[in-house]
Design a protein that fits this description.
The protein is mainly α. It contains 14 helices and no strands. The longest helix is centred in the N-terminal third of the chain and has 46 residues.
């Protein structure tokens, strides 16, 4: 009885200290969050300013006049809708290809053991240690010899699969119970039907995670589209942002407004898939 009373008293005395610790923790996190939001809010502010007021001192966080016409000028200054179409087409094609080809390879490694599978998988993982800059020139030479420069093929085909995607899905497939697959085999299901009707529906969190990572990577890619495209009609949004700069000046309100339009779809995709994203990350950390 005395022990119970002592424990209760201890919990009561510990509550004020815990409350102060929580207040301090949330206060620090709030300050850090606000500091990360400041550049984003400054972009919004700059996109609504007149061009001459961008470099005023002291700087004005809230514009004296709100020029929403800047966003209309973005579409007049550049073929922004063409850039958007190119980016959407390339991004969705790569996302679909990554999910399809990476899941097929991951299923083979996780559920169809064959001689040398572990060695081949280790080789796949080893390629993750090679910086992408190292493979840029050889890949460009291949694209040039295939006569794919300035085409959608040059922007899509080199990224239809990845070692990271195969590793991510393989680890998730290992966490799925095999009993359902064994029952399907007894019923006469083929391996492809098991993969398509059982494995993929159960792997939505991992597939959503891979899709989000791929979407963000392709949507924000600048270097590769810049290298393989020569005409304005084939440019993506990231490369198209350069039209608001010239040799001597930059139209910062239009530049910031266009950058916000480019960032918005990435934020939207992440917010709608956040539940699958977090769940997929936690589950793929299970033993393989």
């Amino acid at each position: 009885m005395a022990t119970m009373t002592g424990t209760a008293n201890h919990s009561k005395t510990a509550k004020p200290g815990q409350l102060l610790a929580d207040i301090f923790t949330y206060g620090v996190l709030g300050i850090v969050s606000l500091s990360m939001l400041v550049p984003f809010l400054w972009m919004i502010s700059t996109s609504l300013k007149p061009e001459y007021s961008v470099f005023e001192f002291p700087p004005q966080f809230i514009p004296s006049s709100w020029l929403f016409e800047n966003y209309v000028s973005i579409f007049k200054a550049a073929p922004f809708m063409r850039f958007l179409y190119n980016t959407l087409f390339v991004t969705m094609s790569v996302v679909i290809g990554q999910v399809l080809f990476c899941s097929l390879a991951a299923y083979a490694f996780a559920r169809l053991p064959f001689k040398g599978s572990n060695a081949i998988f280790v080789l796949f993982l080893a390629t993750m240690m090679i910086p992408s800059q190292v493979t840029t020139i050889p890949t460009y030479i291949m694209i040039y010899k295939f006569h794919w420069l300035d085409s959608y093929a040059a922007q899509i085909i080199p990224f239809l699969s990845s070692a990271y995607g195969i590793f991510l899905l393989k680890q998730f497939f290992h966490s799925l119970p095999k009993e359902t697959e064994d029952a399907a085999r007894i019923d006469g299901c083929s391996e492809f039907r098991i993969y398509w009707n059982i494995i993929l529906p159960l792997s939505q969190p991992a597939i959503a995670t891979l899709s989000v990572f791929t979407f963000m990577g392709v949507w924000t890619d600048f270097l590769w589209p810049m290298l393989v495209t020569n005409t304005v009609e084939m440019r993506t949004l990231e490369v198209g942002l350069s039209v608001f700069r010239n040799q001597y000046t930059t139209n910062w309100p239009l530049q910031m407004g266009a950058s916000l339009l480019v960032i918005f779809p990435v934020l939207l995709v992440f917010l709608f898939t956040q539940r699958y994203f977090v769940q997929g990350i936690s589950l793929t950390g299970m033993k393989g």
